[in-house]
Amino acid sequence: MSFIARLVAGAGLASVLAISAGAQEMTITHRQGEVTLPAAPKKVLVLDWAAVDTLDAMGVAVAGVPGSNAPDYLSKYNGNDYLKIGSLFEPDVEAIAAADADLLILGGRSAKAYPQVEGLLPTIDLSVDNGAFLDSVTANITELGNIFGAQDRAAEMVGELEAKIAKVKADAQGKGRALMLVVSGGKIGVYGPDSRTGWIHNELGLPSVMDGVDDRSDRGDAASYEFILDRNPDWMFVVDRDAAVGREAGEAAKAVLDNELVRQTNAWKNDHVVYLHPQEAYIVMNGYQAVNRLLDQVDAALTDAQ
Description:
Layout: H1 3-19, E1 26-30, E2 33-37, E3 44-46, H2 49-58, E4 64-65, E5 83-84, H3 93-98, E6 103-106, H4 114-117, E7 123-125, H5 133-147, H6 151-172, E8 178-184, E9 187-191, H7 199-202, E10 221-223, H8 225-231, E11 235-240, H9 241-245, H10 253-257, H11 266-269, E12 273-275, H12 278-284, H13 288-304
Parallel strand pairs: 3-6, 4-5, 6-7, 8-11, 11-12
Antiparallel strand pairs: 1-2, 8-9, 9-10
């Protein structure tokens, strides 16, 4: 059984158990296994901005969050009301152990910390599968709704996303091929169909101008102006990494791409260069609010091109 199938099945199981008596055990299936809780969690720590994003939209309170890289629209979590439990890459094990929480949620960058923390308290990994990105996002929303007794709100959120995805897919038909770029420190990289933003290619229907991208680095597969012109995409979607992480170093993505060769591409000539919301595309990526904003942005560009 695939991970997505297991996740959906686990979400269903959690739902059945959560609806039972308040003290009933709850079993949660996640990316690195299963965990059983004696009851629905009341105090939750989250070391993943995507999960914070989704729980925020769901109206579920969290006690602990990452201590860095909060996106602007979640800036309230910078306040002292929220325990800081480490960075996206490194958990503060002492803070987590002392928090006396019922559940810790990891995902994405923090998933590698699972062996360090899963012995401290019940821990789940809600990382998504880039090969089934949108299904992973909606499955996580359903799972979180079941865990926290917010099934109605979760169903509403999933329905909104699914309707929006269907519209963007329809609007993308016949719009041509796309190139996904990341700009960092004045350098250009390519994100491919299997990357964090590959769902725009694979699931929305804007095929990539190339396959076989070595984009394991967060800065993508190194590219040049000549390469961009040679591929001549109909669309360019751009992630400004420096803007996402709040760095002043390097030129802004728009300035980097404003080059004689890039200006010859179909994408540039037709004003089909979309600078994705940087924090949503690079930091949060798969949270409900982040995906909503990115879908709106992509659809607005496609609609304008009609």
